[in-house]
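Thread: Modeling a multi-component assembly for a lab meeting

Hi all, long-time lurker, first post. My supervisor asked me to bring a structural picture of a complex we are working on to next week's group meeting, and I have zero experience with this. I have the sequence lines for every component (203 residues in total). Could someone generate the structure of the whole assembly? Inputs are pasted exactly as I received them:
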Amino acid sequence: MKIIGVGRNYVEHAKELGNEVPEEPLIFLKPDTSLIRNNQPFYYPDFSKDVHFECEIIYRISREGKYVKEEFAHKYYDAIGIGIDFTARDIQQKAKEKGLPWTLAKGFNGSAPVSEFVDKSHFTDLKNLDFSLKINGEPRQNGNTSLMIFTIDHLISFVSRYITLRKGDIIFSGTPKGVGPVKIGDKLEAFIENEKLLDVEVK
Ligand code: MG
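Re: Modeling a multi-component assembly
Sure thing. I ran the full set together rather than chain by chain. Output:
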C-alpha cells in the first residue's frame, strides 16, 4: 500500500508557512514504513530538531482506480479516520530552498500515525466534519473538511490520472492552521467530531 499526502490544502495553513495557495493539488508520498497503528508511540528521530505535527483527516481507498471521474470518486473510498502527518520542518525547509523533493522530510519511519478507520456511513455529512488535535490536553488544531481547498473527490480524480489507486491506500488530506513542533514526552490526541480516535505519545 501507499500513503498519498496533500500539501497546502487549507488556506490558513498555506499562509502560516508563507506559501502561496496552490492552483492544483501539491502531492507527495509516504512509504508504508511511515505508518504507525494501534496508538503505538512515535520515536523522535535523531536527524531533525524541528518535527511538526499536522493533524489530518485520512481516507481509505476501497478499490483500484485510474482516471477516476470526480463525480464517481466517492465510490473509491469507504472509510475515514484521522492521522498525523509528522514533518521534519528543518529538512523540508532546506529542500524547499533548493527545490528538492520532500521525501525524507515527510516519509521517515513513523511519520504517519493513523487511527482505526470508521465506515463513512457512520457520518451524516463528510463534507462538513469537525476534527481537532490536543497536545497534553491543550487544544492545538481545529479543522473542518468544508475548508479543504481541494475536496477528497477532486483529489482522487486528480491523483488517479498519474498514480493508480489501490485498495488499502490512504490519502492524508492536508492540515488546517496551527501546526507546530512536538517534543519528547508530548501526548497527542486526535478527534473527529467529539470522538477521540487516536493517541500518540512522543518518545
Ligand atoms: Mg500535511
